[in-house]
Amino acid sequence: MTEQEVLAVAAHELGHCYTGDLFKINLLNAVGYTIIVLALQAIINNKEGILLSFGFKTSCDAVLIFVGLSITLNLINFWIDKLSMAYSRKIEYQADRFAYDLDFGEDLTNALYKM
Ligand SMILES: [Zn+2]
Asked: What's the gap in Å between 96 CA and the centre of ligand 1?
């Protein structure tokens, strides 16, 4: 990579700092994990209701609770992944735009092709 391309990549990374992306990502992760913990707590506290919703009439069956937890967590994780990817694309575009506005557009493009 040329010196200008390295500066372009640095400008992209500075764009993340300028827009506060690190804080936003950490906040988003904290919200996501809080939702997961609250969902787990709701499932554990309402295990009979969960079992009944799956059509089982018995309670306190650890295997069934584990299956219910797995299904629920997979559904939650599916949507968190989708939202996370969409947000990631948005902040990467903003960081690219920051480098572009500093006149590193062509150098950033060349650097990305090389990486
Ligand atoms: Zn980036």
From this structure: 7
Q: How far is the CA of 104 from the centre of ligand 1 (A)?
A: 14
Contacting residues for 17 by C-beta, under 8 A, at least 6 apart? none
Whole-model pTM: value is 0.65
Query: Looking at per-residue confidence, does 4 or 45 come out higher?
Result: 4
- CA-atom Rg of the chain in angstroms: 22
Distance 92 CA to ligand 1 centre (A): 5
CA distance 86 to 74: 18
pLDDT in tens, 75-97: 888 988 898 899 899 999 999 99
Going by C-alpha positions, the residue among 40, 112, 27, 48 that lies closest to residue 75 is 40
Q: How far apart are CA 29 and CA 10, in angstroms?
A: 25
- Amino acid symbol at 112: L
DSSP annotation of 56 reads: -
